[in-house]
């Protein structure tokens, strides 16, 4: 399956339990036997941010990860504390929103493109965050439109139209003025608190940066 590791946690002495957002089956949890051993070929592929192909087989009660071929580890994020914090926040949102056996292809595409945007220096990380938050609400089918539309700048309304309608691959192709960025922040906060009302731990860290 094609997917991206959202989180990993130790199980027992040598194993890991990983949560993967997959194109084919939505969010899946799987056990990786021996993945914590330094000699294991599953040690690196079971780290968060790892994107690629995963070999899984279904047991009676759970999946087991048997192999992985990773095409992108997002190394730039792993070396950038601020970028890693933003990225971890995105992973946490996807873990909250995604469901097993759901069609989560759009969410996976959004996550992948958003991590790529975080890794680049051409777009502010705060803008990446607001775009990601708003588009996640759209993918969940809960976007209500602009609240009190008359009070927003024309550039903000144009940005929202782009964020909510553009192909995911074209999302991160613009920057905005500080004034518009401030309005996007207010809108993203409004949508997040209304539709993603969860105490995301990584967001608490982000708010201290």
Short description:
Helices cover 42% and strands 21% of the residues. It is built from seven helices and five strands.
Describe the structure.
The structure is a single chain. The chain is an alpha+beta fold and 209 residues long. Helices cover 42% and strands 21% of the residues. It is built from 7 helices and 5 strands, in the order E-E-E-E-E-H-H-H-H-H-H-H. A hairpin with a 3-residue loop joins strand 1 and strand 2. It starts with a strand and ends with a helix.
What key phrases describe this protein's structure?
alpha+beta, 5-stranded mixed β-barrel, single chain, 209 residues
Helix content bin:
40-55%
Q: Strand count, sense and closure of the main sheet?
A: 5 strands, mixed, barrel
Bulk shape: elongated
Side-by-side strand order of the widest sheet: 1-2-3-5-4
Low-pLDDT residue intervals, each spanning 5 or more residues: none
Could you give the order of the helices and strands?
A: EEEEEHHHHHHH
- The average pLDDT value, as a whole number, equals 95
For the record, give the distance between the C-alpha atoms at the N and C termini, rounded to a whole number.
36 Å
SS content category: alpha+beta
Number of strands: 5
Count of helix runs: 7
Supply Rg.
18 Å
Strand content of the residues, in percent? Answer: 15-25%
């Amino acid at each position: 399956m094609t997917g991206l590791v959202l989180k990993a946690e130790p199980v027992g002495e040598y194993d890991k339990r990983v949560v993967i957002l997959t194109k084919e089956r939505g969010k899946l949890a799987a056990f990786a036997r021996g993945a914590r051993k330094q000699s294991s070929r599953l040690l690196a592929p079971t780290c968060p941010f790892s994107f690629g192909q995963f070999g899984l087989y279904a047991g009676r009660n759970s999946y087991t990860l048997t192999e992985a071929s990773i095409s992108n580890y997002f190394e730039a994020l792993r070396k950038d504390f601020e970028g890693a914090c933003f990225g971890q926040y995105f992973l946490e949102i996807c873990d909250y929103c995604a469901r097993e056996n759901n069609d989560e292809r759009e969410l996976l595409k959004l996550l992948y493109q958003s991590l790529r945007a975080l890794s680049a220096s051409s777009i502010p990380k705060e803008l990446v965050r607001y775009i990601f938050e708003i588009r996640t609400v759209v993918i969940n089918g809960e976007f209500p439109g602009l609240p009190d539309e008359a009070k927003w700048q024309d550039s903000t309304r144009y940005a929202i139209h782009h964020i909510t309608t553009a192909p995911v691959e074209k999302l991160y192709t613009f920057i905005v003025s500080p004034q518009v960025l401030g309005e996007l922040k207010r809108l993203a906060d409004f949508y997040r608190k209304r539709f993603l009302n969860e105490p995301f731990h990584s967001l608490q860290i982000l708010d201290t940066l």
